[in-house]
Predict the 3D structure of the following.
Amino acid sequence: MQLYLLVLIASLVAVLALESAKPLRPLAPGAPWRWLNNLLLAALATAVTLLTPLLFWALAGLLSVQRGAPFGLLHWLEMPAWLAWPVTFLVLDALGYAVHRISHVVPWLWRLHAVHHTDPEMDATTTHRHHPLENGVTALISLAVLLPLGAPPLAVLAYSLFALVVTTLAHANLSFGPRLTRALGWLLVTPDFHRNHHRSAQRWTDSNYGIVLPWFDRLLGTATAVEPVEQQRQMELGLAHSRSARDQRLDQLLLAPLQSRQSIAPTAVRAR
Ligand SMILES: [Zn+2]
């Protein structure tokens, strides 16, 4: 748990330093206010996320003790660690992609997830700007998959730490430039790739769902091409609504899922 918090804070500070040194987009007015509220919400959401490993270890331990043997598919298949680790990585990233994509379609999940999307800018502080209830739902779904899978706890921890670094970088107010984006873009989600997902225009919001790997977007046809750097500087981020300073305040972020304007899932708008 301490390691998770350490990596979270270190990646946040490192990426904030990087993006301050060479920001892609100029700082919008009111940036410190947005940062403060993003970080306060992130603290609440992270507290919920930290309950997941505790529950995972407790339940996995309980099930194993009850059965007198390690619980889960990977144990029953007697899968060696060198294979169980990459399988766990792939399953976790596929799960992240699936939950994220579903969150853009199912209205009540969108109400929670939209809090992440109403940030009118995208930077390191956007990474963990999630409604705590969204993190709770994600935690329960993850447990429902990880326990029957019998995922090695250390592999789950390693994926979580790696995902922290990649997602913080993916939200950075930075451009990796066309060359590095092309080279890395086959392997990892880059900020240039993920920025499309934070555009307010419908066509883009419902694209580039990947968490660490861009492979599922490419395989399942939800990838949109990285825009030229100049276009990335000017594109409108966030959503069409909830753009005022008041909307960015912690209490409003927490109450947002109850508001009617949050009820319209992006896909529902497109279907009209
Ligand atoms: Zn999203």
The chain is about 60% helix and 0% strand. Residues 2-15+33-271 form one domain. Residues 81-103 form the longest helix (23 residues).
